[in-house]
Amino acid sequence: MQSIAVASGCFEQVSQILFTAITINAINSCCFEQPREASLALRTALQAVTCNQGAFHCTPQLRGREPEVSEAAHQPSCSTVIKDWSENSRHFIINEKLTGETLNIAWSRLSPDQRRRIAKQTADYITELRKLHSPRIQSLTGETVYSTFLFLAGPTAPHGPFSSDQELWAELDKALVNVPKKAPQRLQTMMPAATPYTFTHGDLTNVNIMVDKGNLTGIIDWETGGYFPVWWEFTSASVGLGQEDKDWKTLLQEYMPQFKEANEFWLDFFSLSRYPKLDSRATAFFQKIKE
């Protein structure tokens, strides 16, 4: 989970990010690599939120504005800050443990209807966060982002910020340096526009979804969260880490905003990045550009 800095002129947007994230229990235990002041802004917002019989209230109003959160039949509970401290230029926040268990543990015991309900609840909360936009691909603090499956040339390295499709493509193209030039040139023409840059979790794997009694109780592990291409939340859900996770994400995608063209682009990108190893998709791509 990244820290959130309250920069001049963007307090209202950051406040809404904080409040919305809290209502879906974005934070379980967090380590912040950004300055202490930034993470303290998050803690202050956490302490301003109270729970009352499943409903969420922001008290007092943040800068005179009550953030709007959509109604839902089942609302996760608030998570209380237990402790925060600094250590070696890093700031830590620990919250109460969320109710329930991770979806990968519960999956085999859930009925088809329960699985669908959890998928819809997850998509609904993610849709709320998708209302948040940025002028750049960047973290919540305006700094670099991390993504294992988007930036294939450096999956554990920081990337960005990026302000255009050209800048984004230049970064993606680093994973294709050994591929015959015609393939990346064709692939670039297939990349959908990345704007509006949209707040994205980016790792909705089943180990990051908390559930209890057939309902969503939290979404955890937001360390790769930030502003990404508008299509990345949907596309990143194409990556299944095992059969059960694949089944979960296939179901989740049914309830998410659809970006199937972007999904096809990314699948081609992923296959080409493994060159000279060619799977059936990469082979078909090379055949296509010969025609």
TrEMBL record:
Top-rank taxon: Eukaryota
Residues covered by the Aminoglycoside phosphotransferase domain: 73-238
Protein name: Aminoglycoside phosphotransferase domain-containing protein
Organism of derivation: Clonostachys rhizophaga
